TrEMBL record:
General (non sugar-specific) component of the phosphoenolpyruvate-dependent sugar phosphotransferase system (sugar PTS). This major carbohydrate active-transport system catalyzes the phosphorylation of incoming sugar substrates concomitantly with their translocation across the cell membrane. Enzyme I transfers the phosphoryl group from phosphoenolpyruvate (PEP) to the phosphoryl carrier protein (HPr). It catalyses: L-histidyl-[protein] + phosphoenolpyruvate = N(pros)-phospho-L-histidyl-[protein] + pyruvate. Pfam families: PEP-utilisers_N, PEP-utilizers, PEP-utilizers_C. This is Phosphoenolpyruvate-protein phosphotransferase.
Length: 576
């Protein structure tokens, strides 16, 4: 029987295949008492060791397929797995209550997860989700139940599941799997991010899809609109084959833009750059025709370590990227730890609001040795390419000046040691807070460039925790207040005589290209796979028409009105 199911388009594409219904094997936990508690503790430890081995293999596979920044997810998983406090708690449950390893682990994990899931902090809530993923694998290993291998599915498979964890998605063999559909999740879920990196169509948030389908049924996944059609008609199959072929043909056409500049119809050029997390991401951005790097997230270099990386280790990573870009701009953000990112070897305080707390540059200015090591590595690497230094989480001119003083100290040290570096290295800041956006012209006098981080700017402007599901509907970069903050930032940069980029998710939003171009954004930096489409959009636009769109939109009062007006404009210029 034909079924139509609606979800969220999490990773673009169109697929037609056979359903593989991914359901967890039932785990029956013995709730009875045991006499030999030492044997249960041994099972607990052996299960943990096997789980760690599996996660290390998955991490290595992910690094090869998707790069170090995606693989870093599993470093966090392994850190949670090795949490000795949790392990000792479970051992105590085994000893005190004389219960099985599975029973004790389930109780210990659930208690810990419940506590984390009820906290307001996004990072800690995400830890609860990760811990449940790890616990499931750990429990199965203790019980001797084989964990499903998604790497060996048949060709033309569409995975349908309640959810796919990062470790599930990382195992997917893209030669055989065409797409996936899940009951829960959103565009920012780890599995969705990984699907986009794999260029695998994905529709998420479909509700009770698993109870509506059976394995082997034919399914259409339209991840351009979020539509799923089970047992489609012959007519629908023909229509969607044509839609799939048209989409793939468009992708081929977009590849032809690889070596072309992003120049509008009236001759205005903007930068089409990409964001990366490690040197492993460089081939992808070059393959997609990115003309530079607007954001190199160096925190992954810190997170993939059991100690602070040395100056030489950092230097080699930055030098590698600079050389690969062959003179194109490489914007490297200083360590952005805190908020939703932690280091196992650095004790960060427990805070009620870590996104508003001791994080990013605040940590580095309080611990100047961290910043100094990074600055020296960046300066040394600047001799091998066009490196630009960027500071995150700025709220005051004093912070910028203090960081610049440290940078000048590092320059003096390297000069004295006879070490070559770019004397004119560019020094810029992220625009992530209303404090900077509202006084952009003043900050522009202090630096060489700006880059707007829309994820945090939206969060801070609207006072909306973007990870809180209860208010996720309020998180909207098209909110007139956020658009006003973006325009203030762009105007302030230009009045101060400096260029401005955007490296937040909004830069890769096809719907937003025209309004950002009309506002005067100089460089768009995004996920590498978005670069060709944004280039194509720019080539279809006229600057004056986009400026007129901005004037109309800035007079509107609601995000709905803004989107409707932008959609009308885009329908004319992009045909969608």
């Amino acid at each position: 029987m034909r079924k139509f199911i609606k979800g969220i388009d999490a990773s673009p594409g169109v697929a037609i295949g056979k359903i593989f219904l991914y359901e967890e094997k039932e785990l029956v936990i013995d709730k009875g008492n045991v006499e030999d508690t030492d044997a249960q503790k041994k099972r607990l430890l052996e299960g943990r060791e096997k789980t760690k081995e599996q996660l290390l293999v998955i991490r290595e596979t992910t690094a090869k397929k998707l790069g170090e920044d995606k693989a870093a997810i599993f470093d966090g998983h392994i850190t949670l797995l090795e949490d000795e406090d949790l392990f000792e708690e479970v051992e105590e449950l085994i000893e005190d209550d004389q219960i099985t390893a599975e029973n004790a682990l389930e109780q210990g994990i659930e208690e810990y997860c419940e506590m984390l899931a009820n906290l307001e902090d996004e990072y800690l809530r995400e830890r609860a989700t990760d811990l449940r993923d790890i616990a499931k694998r750990w429990l199965y290993n203790i019980a001797g139940i084989e964990v499903a291998d998604l790497g060996s599915l048949e060709a033309n498979t569409v995975i349908v599941a309640k959810d796919l964890t990062p470790s599930d998605t990382a195992q997917v063999n893209v030669d055989n799997v065409l797409a996936f559909v899940t009951e829960i999740g959103g565009k920012t879920a780890h599995s969705s991010i990984m699907a986009r990196s794999l260029e695998l169509p994905a529709v998420v948030g479909t509700g009770d899809v698993c109870s509506q389908v059976e394995g082997g049924e034919t399914v259409i996944v339209d991840a351009l609109t979020g539509d799923v059609i089970v047992n489609p008609t012959d007519k629908e199959l023909e229509e969607y084959k044509a839609k799939r072929d048209a989409y793939l043909a468009e992708k081929d056409e977009l590849r032809k833009l690889k070596d072309m500049d992003a120049i509008s119809k009236d001759g205005v050029q903007v930068g089409a750059w990409a964001n990366i997390g490690s040197p492993n991401d460089v081939p992808g951005l070059l393959r997609n025709g990115a003309q530079g790097i607007g954001l190199y997230r160096t925190e992954f270099l810190f997170m993939n370590n059991d100690r602070f990386p040395t100056e030489d280790e950092q230097f080699e990573a930055y030098k590698s990227v600079a050389e690969s870009l062959e003179g194109k701009p490489v914007t490297i953000r200083t360590m952005d730890i805190g908020g939703d990112k932690a280091l196992s070897y650095m004790e960060l305080p427990e805070e009620e609001n870590p996104f508003l707390g001791w994080r990013a540059l605040r940590v580095c200015l309080d611990r100047p040795e961290i910043l100094k090591t990074q600055f020296r590595a960046l300066l040394r690497a600047s001799n091998y390419g066009q490196i630009k230094i960027m500071l995150p989480m700025i709220i005051s001119v004093e912070e910028v000046r203090k960081a610049r003083e440290i940078l000048e100290e590092c320059k003096a040290e390297l000069r004295a040691a006879g070490v070559a570096f770019d004397e004119d290295i560019q020094f810029g800041i992220m625009v992530e807070t209303p404090a900077v956006a509202m006084r952009a012209r003043s900050f522009a006098k202090e630096v060489d460039f700006f880059s707007i981080g829309t994820n945090d700017l939206t969060q801070y402007t609207l006072a909306v925790d973007r990870g809180n599901e209860n208010i996720s509907n309020l998180y909207d970069t098209y909110n007139p207040g956020v658009l006003a903050a973006i325009k203030l930032s762009i105007d302030g940069a230009h009045e101060g005589g400096i260029p401005i980029s955007m490296c937040g998710e909004f830069a890769g939003d096809e719907m937003a290209t025209a309004i950002l171009f009309g506002m005067g954004l100089d460089n768009f930096s995004m996920s590498a796979i978005s670069v060709p489409r944004i280039k194509k959009n720019i080539m279809s636009l006229d600057k004056k028409e986009c400026e007129a769109l901005v004037e109309r939109v800035m007079d509107m009062d609601t995000a709905e009105e803004v989107k409707a007006e932008i959609n009308r404009f885009n329908a004319i210029h992009f045909g969608k």
